[in-house]
């Protein structure tokens, strides 16, 4: 049989360029800033760096609106800087992957400018134009469908110049490319992919990978939210009829010539059978995908930022589903719970109260590093960065999606105070800005992120307590724990990275107990997801304690007989056997 692909054992670290490290004092992170931290990442145990979009862009959606795939956003640096970064990674035995955003471009991309210029322009069909605007009874124009865009309002924008609508699932400045057109696909492959693969990048994180193929009948979505005209419509544009054909073609025409890792972003796909179709190795589509259930926890069903409380069995069920769905298949999975679109994990899944913050960070690190799949760590997660303080007003938020939601609710509710407080609660827990605060490098003014005069986004109030410099010097810090756990994961990779997962007592609302198996060898992880003392039973005899997030656990273990363990608040323990 073939050797296991290199990307299975890898630890991937995601960098959000705007917020990682500023090298030139303009308040915005940049590529030379990333370059200056490659050794820091190597030392943490990172194998692959994933850089979120650094392409040229008007930055309507933080670079996910690309105006030129073959150039770099000037405040971030140059193509040459990227070549240097690729080289620096490769010199250290690390790999580099980029974000591949090819469901849409910016409306400032040359392709769209041409497409928009006239109905008979050769690139007209490169985007999705529709003249079937419905006239409402009073004569006002209505878009072709009632689909709601991710950033509020319609997915259709009327273009006066040619009198037609174009489709945009995200912002109106992010028109969707028409994947039905073969020439368009070819252009995407060459410009967005080959250009960078030929410079040595080792693969891509593929943005919204399941939305290229739409249901081209363009039917109205059923009304599930009576508070507004526009309705969630993902079932009409996610996992469309030609999706697998397109991904196979991408492999045949491009990827087969390179040795890459392809990590797809797979929203709206809770069904394991459907996911398996994307990640089966033999099918040559994607290496693995980000399943969304874990980061969707707590989101409202019709309005994302209407926070819904959840209980631990829901989280355990999700972890269990995605740990087990590859059993006996040739598919693979990811392990992650943070990225640039999500609230911080400590605040969402554990506790960011001052007395529990560090314990929570370490407990989650223990859980993640013991799970099967390729591990993804988001910048700042390794030092336990937390969500924005509850006191921050809407003026401190910058994300297009959050602001769009706030404005929609403000207008629907006529600025109702309670309705807007509910929005702020949702944004504080789930808002994308939580992950976009500048990285906290040290306790100096501006957290060592920039030399001033002002970071582009407000710094977290806690940067003097939570930062890299303090934690590097402290063997008991969150950073040191992550570094240890990454090393431990690699040492026992047969069990931790590749092992077969088993869950115990799945309905228990306080504790999470799971095992990993590899032949006779096993690991057991017991986690207390509450701020109170709890009891758990170890599921096997003969386990030896290996890691804990409290400093004195070894003594406690030596004084304990039998299988029952008393766990302190947010305590986690890991055992090995065999
Ligand atoms: O996100 C795509 C996505 O499907 C959404 O779930 C995303 O999480 C967003 O919050 C909408 O609710 C990707 C990128 O990760 C995101 O940053 C971009 O804004 C988006 O694509 C458009 O390119």
TrEMBL record:
Q: Which CDD domains match?
A: AmyAc_SI_OligoGlu_DGase
Q: Any idea which GO molecular function terms this record carries?
A: alpha-amylase activity; cation binding; glucan 1,4-alpha-maltotriohydrolase activity; oligo-1,6-glucosidase activity; sucrose alpha-glucosidase activity
Kindly give the Pfam families that the UniProt entry links to this protein.
Alpha-amylase, Alpha-amylase_C
Q: Which residues form the Glycosyl hydrolase family 13 catalytic domain?
A: 14-436
Q: Which InterPro entries match?
A: A-amylase/branching_C, GH, GH13_cat_dom, Glyco_hydro_b, O16G_dom_2
Q: Report which superkingdom the organism of origin falls in.
A: Eukaryota
Provide this UniProt record's keywords sorted from A to Z: Glycosidase, Hydrolase, Maltose metabolism
- GO process terms (BP): maltose catabolic process; sucrose catabolic process
Give the family this protein belongs to, as stated in its UniProt record.
Belongs to the glycosyl hydrolase 13 family.
Q: What is this protein called?
A: Alpha-glucosidase
Q: Which organism is it from?
A: Echria macrotheca
Source species taxonomy: Eukaryota, Fungi, Dikarya, Ascomycota, Pezizomycotina
């Amino acid at each position: 049989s073939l050797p296991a692909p290199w990307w299975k054992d890898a630890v991937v670290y995601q960098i959000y360029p705007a917020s990682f490290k500023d090298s030139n004092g303009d308040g915005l992170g940049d590529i030379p800033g990333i370059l200056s931290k490659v050794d820091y990442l190597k030392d943490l145990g990172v194998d692959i760096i994933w850089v979120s979009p650094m392409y040229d862009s008007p930055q309507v959606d933080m670079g996910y609106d690309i105006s030129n795939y073959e150039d770099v956003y000037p405040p971030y640096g140059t193509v040459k800087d990227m070549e240097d970064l690729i080289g620096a990674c490769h010199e250290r035995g690390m790999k580099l992957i980029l974000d591949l955003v090819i469901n849409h471009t910016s409306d400032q991309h040359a392709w769209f400018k041409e497409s928009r210029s006239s109905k008979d322009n050769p690139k007209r069909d490169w985007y999705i134009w529709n003249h079937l605007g419905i006239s409402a009874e009073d004569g006002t124009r209505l878009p072709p469908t009632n689909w709601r865009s991710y950033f509020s309002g319609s997915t259709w924008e009327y273009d006066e110049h040619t009198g037609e609508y174009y489709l945009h699932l995200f912002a109106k400045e992010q028109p969707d490319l028409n994947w039905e057109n073969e020439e368009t696909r070819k252009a995407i492959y060459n410009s967005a992919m080959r250009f960078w693969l030929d410079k040595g990048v080792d693969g891509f994180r593929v943005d919204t990978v399941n939305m290229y193929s739409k249901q081209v009948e363009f039917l109205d979505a059923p009304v599930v939210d009576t508070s507004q005209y526009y309705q969630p419509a993902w079932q009409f544009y996610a996992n469309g009829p030609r999706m697998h054909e397109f991904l196979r073609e991408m492999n045949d025409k491009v990827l087969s010539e390179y040795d890459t890792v392809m990590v797809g972003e797979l929203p709206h796909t809770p069904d394991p059978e459907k996911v398996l179709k994307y990640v089966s190795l033999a099918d040559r589509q994607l290496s693995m995908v980000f399943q969304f259930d874990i980061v969707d926890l707590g989101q409202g069903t019709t309005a994302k930022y209407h926070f819904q409380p959840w209980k631990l069995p829901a989280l355990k069920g999700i972890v269990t589903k995605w740990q087990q769905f590859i059993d006996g298949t040739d598919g693979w999975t990811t392990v992650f719970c943070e990225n640039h679109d999500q609230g911080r994990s400590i605040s969402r899944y554990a506790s960011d109260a001052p007395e529990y913050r560090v314990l929570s960070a370490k407990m989650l690190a223990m859980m993640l590093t013991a799970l099967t799949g390729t591990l993804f760590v988001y910048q700042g997660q390794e030092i336990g960065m937390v969500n924005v303080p509850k006191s921050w007003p809407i003026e401190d938020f910058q994300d297009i999606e959050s602001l769009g939601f706030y404005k929609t609710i403000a207008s629907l509710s006529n600025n109702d105070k309670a309705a807007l407080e509910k929005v702020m609660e949702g944004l504080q827990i789930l808002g994308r800005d939580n992950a976009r605060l500048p990285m906290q490098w040290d306790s100096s003014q501006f957290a060592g992120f920039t030399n001033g005069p002002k970071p582009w986004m407000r710094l977290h109030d806690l940067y003097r307590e939570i930062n890299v410099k303090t934690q590097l010097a402290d063997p008991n810090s969150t950073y040191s724990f992550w570094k240890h756990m990454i090393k431990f994961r690699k040492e026992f990779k047969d069990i931790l990275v590749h092992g077969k997962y088993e869950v115990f007592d799945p309905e228990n609302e306080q504790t999470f107990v799971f095992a990993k198996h590899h032949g006779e060898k096993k690991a057991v992880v017991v986690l207390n997801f509450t701020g109170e003392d709890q009891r758990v039973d170890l599921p096997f005899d003969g386990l030896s304690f290996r890691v804990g997030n409290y400093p004195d656990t070894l003594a406690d273990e030596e004084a304990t007989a039998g299988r029952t363990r008393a766990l302190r608040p947010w305590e986690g323990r890991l055992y090995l056997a065999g």
